[in-house]
Amino acid sequence: MALVPFRVSGPAADQSLQVRTMQLGGYAIRITQDQQASASLQPLQAGHHLSDEDALRRPGERLDGVGFVVWQSAFVLLEYLLRCPPFGQWADVRVVELGSGTGVGGIALVLAGADVLLTDLTHVVPLTSHNVTANCGEQNHRSSVCKYTWGDEVKPLGPQPDLIIGSDVVYQQEYFDDLIDTIWRLSAPHTLTFLAYRVRGRGEDVFRAKLDKKGFAVIALPPTSLHEEYADGQYVILRICKV
Q1: What percent of the chain shows pLDDT beyond 90?
Q2: Domain around 144
Q3: What is the DSSP letter of 44?
Q4: CATH number at residue 124
Q5: Does 1 fall in a domain?
Q6: pLDDT at 34
Q7: Highest taxon of the source (predicted)?
Q8: Which residues lie closer than 8 Å to 188 by C-beta, 6 or more apart?
Q9: What is the dihedral of CA 112, 115, 121, 123, to 10 degrees?
Q10: What pLDDT score was predicted for residue 33?
Q11: Residue 231 half-sphere exposure, CB side, CA atoms within 13 Å?
Q12: Number of domains, the chain
């Protein structure tokens, strides 16, 4: 099947819409975002929607607001992965997504044929589950959603996956060690991890240094390998594996 670039209904940079419809690799995905979609949170005040910058908390702040919007780095990562499958195809590829949020990443890979476990914090999981159920249809048997906090025991996540993915999970330095430790313990010798983020000057170099110190081999994909709209260096995809 021919893959097409992602398209979003409305301005690509607008993160305020409660429902977004998009095309990713030829798959139509309809994502509900906004805190009101989570049964575990109080509704927002009338007329207020969570923006990308609202969701990106400063270090030391609570995580109540994260995970409820579609982040642009998810599009960047998925456009690349659907165009260049790391294992050549998606059938029988087991994926764990860390920080799934709205679930768009895991959903796209389920539709492509992978078996995906989507994970996030307790208060985010209701929104993730809602979107997975709404989009995966007959392929829901290849998706599952569970609560997981970085740094916790990874055994409940099942066998070590072939692929680990995460979008815009690199922005709060106090969680870097837990995230890296989780990736390390989840990774088998063959496991590949792809993390995408927007460069904001919020410790990205520190994160890279910590990955190196842990013993990972880390490659930043050339900007020219990303979709042409995002090849200006603002977005980075890291390819990570154990040495």
Answers
A1: 70
A2: 7-242
A3: P
A4: 3.40.50.150
A5: no
A6: 63
A7: Eukaryota
A8: 160, 161
A9: 70
A10: 85
A11: 10
A12: 1
